[in-house]
Structures
1.
Amino acid sequence: MNLFKIAWRNLWRNKRRTLITAASLFFAVFFAIIMRSMALGTYDLMIDSAVRQYSGFIQIQNKEYWKEKTIDELMTNSDSLHRLIENQDGVVSLLPRLESFALASSGNKTKGIILQGINPLVDDKMTGLSSRLVKGKYLTEADNGVVLAQRLSSFLELNVGDTVVLLSQGYHGVTAANIFPVRGIVKVPNPTLDNRLIVTSIEAAQDFYGASNMLTSLVVNIESKYDIDKVMAKVKKQLEGSDLSVLSWTDMNKELKQQIDSDNGSGKIMLAILYMVVFFGVLGTIIMLTAERKKEFAVMVSIGMQRFRLSVLVFIETIFIGFLGMLAGLIAAMPILLYYANSPIRLTGEMAKTYETMGIEPLMGFSLQADIFINQFIIVFFVLIIALIYPTIKIWSFNLINALKS
Amino acid sequence: MKKILVYSILILGIISLMSMNLMQENNDLSAKEIIDKANNNRFGNSSESVMDMTIVRPKWTRSITMKTWTLGKEYSMVIITAPAKEKGQVFMKRKSEMWNWIPKISRMIKLPPSMMSQGWMGSDYTNDDMVNEGALVNEFDHKITKSQIWDGTDCYVIESVPRENSDVIWGKKISWISKDRYLPLKTESYDEDMYLVKTETASKIKEMGGKIIPTLFTIIPADEPNQKTILTMKSIMFDEKITESFFTQQNMKRVK
């Protein structure tokens, strides 16, 4: 207890030294938190727009489907399968999907599109498609109309109430051709999908492709994306020996996963460099501090202070400085994080175009995940411990007489 | 005397060379004639027929019923009559163009050249097969290579190589044509690298529509195991009164 009091007073005996050391830690923690939060927040947004709003985190498919993704390798939609999977922990709902390519035509304009047949009510709870309606109405149960992505609708010059002609090859080579009324237009955040997505009810899609009661996939909607591995393992176990396979979003969207991994890796290297610089800064002040206080230490030891207690004292002082810097950094970063976590930064100009060509919505998000902060605290703590090795050795080994004389 | 002998030998030599040349041409002509005759035997001057097409795949099979009209080598029209989902779809070939009418979406589609090598209605027939049937006679050079017994029938084996500037997608075709009735019993199609692409065979020869013709056709692609397309002739009438004006876009929307 006494030691803490002495350490605290020691800190303020030389305010400038304390503040300089704390300031370098403050900047390190401040930038590290912002960098990590921004990186992780942006990944979350990327995953959200590419995965949650489209493919889902886990899909059950015919084993043969993923190789060629042809409409000839479908799976049967059955109640028993639904019951089996829905009863697993962590599974919220199952979303039947029938998805394939088609040519969409209106007037003289034609474009290759993705036609997605969904169960409008169940699907909406995961993807939130209806909340992104720009015009018209959302699909109802077994609707025979379609909802168009916004950019696609402006390319085809289609409006709510118009009809769009779809043409494709269906199940087992059947000619798939039909006319669909446009019920609504939605803004899809993912630019690639916004250019080519048409959504209809699963019944209408099955009729169009001549594949009654067949699906390309059954999307497993899960409670939290952090449970993917757990739920995957359970579903896999249930489907063992069947002709169905279970895929996670990282299997289905390898590009996004790799993009995130490589960006995350370079972010971590940047962070390591930042902490390295800060480490040498802190080490420098500590070496200076030890040299300056050589005489003081010598006096303390000669009037009866144990060297062990003295080194504990220096340890406590340093940790105090560390906490001071970290707390200040956290307090300074927090308002920024809280603000942008709720309203992500929308990029414009060249940067936005770069994002769009990669098929990502040009948004920079911020994450408030607790481990971002905990990790910085742990790293700073280790930086300080390593920097403390020098003064500790000095305290244990200095020559009393020489130090007193100096 | 000696001179006359030399001259006569020379003349004889020239004559024999010329006659060999003539024979060669004769031979060439007859190969083309055989192909032409075989082609005519299959379709007549004009025809109206009902056919079943069965597409066989490793995991499934599918059948389509259709009615077809042909006039010469240049014109043909096909209407799908079953299954219900595809009923009413019409394909028309006019010279080298191919059109598709889909009543459900009221669209007339001209099949682009890029789609010509794709399967027709998901079968092993390519769109090119539909359009360029007549091309076999005029755009290839033909040569009888040998005689061979195929399926119990004595056949001419004719190798056909496309002419230099013809727009044919094949490297060569080899046809087995029966000597007695000039019926095409088997055709092998090779690509530009001379790999076998597919084999078409004809069997179940019987009288139909007043002619003796094969009524069962099978196409087997070479590189897809357990996969084939079977065409069965249900009925055929030859030399019906069909004129060019039958093969129009307007009529595509009307035919039944």
2.
Amino acid sequence: MVSEPAIPVSVLTGFLGSGKTTLLSCLLRQPELARAAVIINEFGEIGLDHELVATSDDTVVALTTGCLCCKVRSDLTETLHDLLRRRDAGALPQPFDHIVIETSGLADPAPILHALMTDADLAGRLTLGSVVTTVDAVAGEGTLEREAVSRKQVAVADRIVLSKLDLAHGDAAALLRRVAALNPGAPTLRAVRGEIDAAALFADPRRRPEIDAWLGEAHAHGHEHHDGEIKAFAVVRTAPIRAVALTLFLEALAEHCGADLLRLKGIVNIAESPEKPAVIHGVQHVFHAPAWLERWPSADRTSRIIFITRRIPRRWVELLLDAVGAEVACVAAAG
Amino acid sequence: MSGVPTELACELMSASLAAWRLAGEARCVDDGAIVVERTGKHETIRIEPKADDPMFRWLITIDGRRRPVVSLPGVLRHLRAALDPDYAATRVRVSVASLPVP
């Protein structure tokens, strides 16, 4: 029996009123998402957003029992299981090949990502796709200033969509700088009345063009972006890193930083696998097992790890990596 | 020695205090150990690299109790547990779903 490819689950997040539902409505009219199932989480007892998303079948599910990030284990995973059951039973008008979750505007996306990454029963069938965050070009600056969760929504994004540009005065340059400070590796796309190319938005962020994009930021590794408590920085090492050192480093990061490690992505030159680099990816204390590329995406074989953190000093991260690497090297030499 | 230059380990301890938002200092002392003190506390924590032990590469002394420790991450764990009453270690979780190989 040939196993079916894992179905990507993309997360569409963004603060209240930032244009998620408008964007989703436009996206669902495009052929790339013609076979997408949609889960819409609304905060409050009476859901409305799902009524505003124009679709014609049963593949839109509204979750109105509360904020998704607070009840993610039960509501979201049950909904995903139910969608898969209905798909398997042929109970849907057509089988979906993509799932899009629209979070509530107040949701912290991290627990949602954790649920997608760690539910053993879902893991074989679903894979985490893109995290897309909408930012309102009119009110976005004020929202980012006031609302911590909105900064976190931007920080964990693979792509950022600037919405309501048609209503904004000026070029939103200050907002773009703020967004870039929070998440310099994520491309910022622009939507006018929700119109945007779905293919650009939901391409697999771990495929090569995307790796190149977010690693482009790492080349400016002397550069550190700040936005209040949240910092984005890249750690670059020319010497290969032993696999055990990387594991110990990630464990220590998770152990001591936990929720403050908002997002980590990297391409690592593993000493034991010099021709096939490892791609690493983590959200807070949850990491994917590395994916191994068949070859280096360019002639640059440096290890580049991008961090988006809250109150974690870059210097500490660098010292930890270097010290753990030195200890592992010594053990290996003694062995 | 443990393999980690003492200056590097000491700098890591010092940076760790800052990362954990604990006021204090770490310094190298003449016998090759690292001493960590939290501001306003009288006790000191002593961290010694163990040159001749291939398994327990560090010895950490807290409140007069000596504990052998396997690795530098272990030293950090003991150090923080001793200094930070609010510390609750977060255990890493590895996703059951692999990243799709590009």
3.
Amino acid sequence: MTLLRASIAILLPALLLVVGGTAAGAILTVRMSLHAPGAGAGLFEPGSVSLSSWASMGDAHHRGIVLTTILTGLGVSLLSTAIGALLAMLAAPFAGLRFMGVMVLILAPRLSGVLASLFGLQRLLPRGWIGSLIAETWLLVPYSTLILVIALRGIDPHLVPAARGLGASRWQVLRWIIWPLSLPAVALTLQLGWVWGFGAFLGPLFLGGPDQSTLAVEIHHEAFDLGRWPRAAAEGVVLMVLTASAMAAGSWRPRP
Amino acid sequence: MTNPIIARLSGWFVLILLQIPLVMTFWASFSADSLLTLPTTRWSMRWYVDFINEPQWSRAAFRSLIAACVAAGIAVPLATAAAWSLREWPQRFRYYVLGLLLMPATVSGVALGLGLLQVAYAVGLAGQWPCLIGAHTLLGFPVALLVVRMGFTPSLQELEAAAAGLGAKSSVVAWRITLPLLWPWLVASAVAVFVISLNDAVVAVFVCGPDTETLPVVAWRQLRHSAGPMVAVAGTITMMASLGMMGVTTAGLWFLRFRKQSAGGSL
């Protein structure tokens, strides 16, 4: 019991950081969405209570944005998982320095700076939904690959030679050994891709057209370009609900 | 594991595609022209000289470096304490607590930035250093926790139990057993937080004030209007700093492992 108390005590600073930063931020975002926009320098009118920021959430403009956000999330999830699987199959068989070298190349888009990546992507991709989808996928692929590489390297190394020894072709090994054993990791990658894809921001901001705004881009636009912070907060709440729903949907498993 | 040849070829093709934007940025940073056109044939270091001479850019780079070091310095001890604590929690609560601690990684950067800005206003720290450091610590914490947790292996727990069984105090076990075995993971998690902080533009846009603008924020503002060679220079410097930090750390860890093996160390 003393050990448990001690462990709770040393966990407190981390809990304070996470709850103070994330949960308190979420609560304050809900609160700000219920204020009237600030007339002066403030983010909102202190002491005011207003639903004006929520009034427009159901209009055609916002429905379109939510639809783009969902489609982007699904597209990013599927593409990053498929590309991640290809790269994971490439990297997993290597060992030692070769493995590290391939992994550095796979993780390079994230490790070497989003700015460097975006700068290059802006020159390579067309503006529009496809461009923003590819850019966002490009930024997410390193994470997807990492999850899948860990799963593939966790497969019992004796299974594949055993199957090959029994006469299975490479495709049969892939279909009947590797695919079923890596399925939980594929499901996790799809779920995380979906959740992160809902928050797509950099791709749509720098490569998307005006009609391909996602919720994250719209929040930034409302807050920094138009100064309508309560409306940005309302959109932030919608984004958080959408992300939480995606998490919950992805975590649901039918009862055996 | 042997994969079909078509899968391997596709994998190599995608891997090469992944590098192209980075190569283009690197290439563009040495362009001699003010207006960016690729491919360029005139090479110059003028934009790197300008980067160093222009206080807006050089100060932002210095701030980024400070923020990344401090965030790593805070996030790693917090993550280590949390990972140690999680071992002692009953199984049925452990995953709920872990889920709670990993929450910042599942929230969109924009939603997180929006929330953090209001927390900063509520405590009167908007646009100040503690706000930026706190935000980057929060961003890096989930990754640091996952990395450090990988170091708490069953064999480490067995060694700790053996030492405790032989009468070692918990402080001695922590100092002589846990930390020496854990420190490569601590270094790896510090590097991860450093890289995350150095590269963050999304949350920083919300929490930075005029005196705390980091390099990605300054580059971000430029990138939104016109992507000139200075943005390519900023991207290349960030890329080099991240890769350099990782390279030095990896080489250091390999060297120490090699020296320990040469000296006959078993761990």
